[in-house]
Write a structure and sequence with these properties.
Oligomer: single chain
Helix content: 55-70%
Distance between the termini: 19 Å
Number of strands: 0
Order of helices and strands: HHHHHHHH
Number of domains: 1
Largest sheet: none
Structural class: mainly alpha
Strand content: under 5%
CATH topology: Double Clp-N motif
Length: 158
């Protein structure tokens, strides 16, 4: 799949695939990745969301609204739904890990990439929930102070 993902990140990606199936969708979108971070619940990305008052119920409600609106727009204008931003988000997460001098791509890098992916369901939901890339980056930096950015909590993962 992608190089240097932590076991937790691999689990999040598998969970996002399951969530997409729960939505009866044939692709994994940014919204599924965001919900998977919350469902997994033990990553720094999940902690940042939870500390910001973002929980599964609020996030799912926001995502469901945006997905419904997107489907209505598609029907009205006769367009097929766009391809998910999944590959862009993964590439951005890898770049964020590099910039933060991490040897691994972790959930916090994924969360930051989701917030940065303009036009995606996840970035729109995060913005509605009050989380923007700058605030997420600041929270990551604050939490990483005194911790080694290169391990990304790999030693604690199952």
């Amino acid at each position: 799949m992608f190089e240097k993902l932590t076991p937790r990140m691999e689990k999040i990606i598998r969970m996002s695939q399951q969530i997409a199936r729960e939505y009866d969708q044939e692709h994994v979108g940014t919204e599924h990745l965001l919900l998977a971070i919350l469902r997994e619940g033990s990553s720094l990305g999940a902690e940042i969301l939870q500390d910001s008052g973002v929980d599964m119920a609020k996030t799912k409600a926001a995502i469901d609204r945006f997905m419904q609106a997107s489907m209505e727009d598609t029907w009205v204008f006769g367009r097929l739904p766009g391809t998910p931003h999944f590959r862009n988000v993964m590439a951005t997460a890898i770049e964020e890990a590099r910039q933060l001098e991490s040897k691994y791509v972790c959930a916090e890098h994924l969360l930051l990439a989701l917030a940065r992916e303009e036009g995606s369901v996840a970035s729109t939901a995060l913005a509605e929930l009050g989380l923007r890339a700058g605030a997420i980056r600041a929270s990551i930096s604050k939490r990483m102070t005194g911790n080694s950015p290169e391990t990304c909590g790999v030693d604690d993962e199952d």
